[in-house]
Design goal:
This protein is an alpha+beta fold. 55% of the residues lie in helices and 14% in strands.
Length: 162
Amino acid sequence: MPRFTIFISIVILIASLVLLFDRLFTPQPIQITLQSGQEITTSTPEYFSLSEVLLLIISAFLIGTASTYLFYNSDRVQRIKPAQKSGSDENAYNIILPLLKTDEKRVITALLETGGEMQQNKLAAKLNVSKVKTTRMLYGLEQKNLITKERHGLTNMVRLRK
């Protein structure tokens, strides 16, 4: 369902943009009647009829609404729960790996290689990344409910969820 609403938002955004630019840059003929009774027809892009103004306002509103929706829903974190035990934990994590970011895959793979747990400082050394980057990667995995962290002296013990 979320993909469908994002698709609809993109369609509305594109259609509104096309309509807006079409109306703004295509001169529409306007008939002006002077006091002398003479009628003049002009087609300058500076004059718009009431219906065109309303159409432009609605298009601008739809553009803003669709853009805001897409902006706030593009980075929505979806929590991924490991698959139920159906053989081994390694198989469950191998199913999840393609869904993760590159750095997160590296963390899960390193944890799987060491039996599912490792100290955070040793994990940072093994991945050859800074402690800050390690903390950020682990935070993302923790939000997705894939790992747990618990204090272990001056560092943390990182474990895969079972």
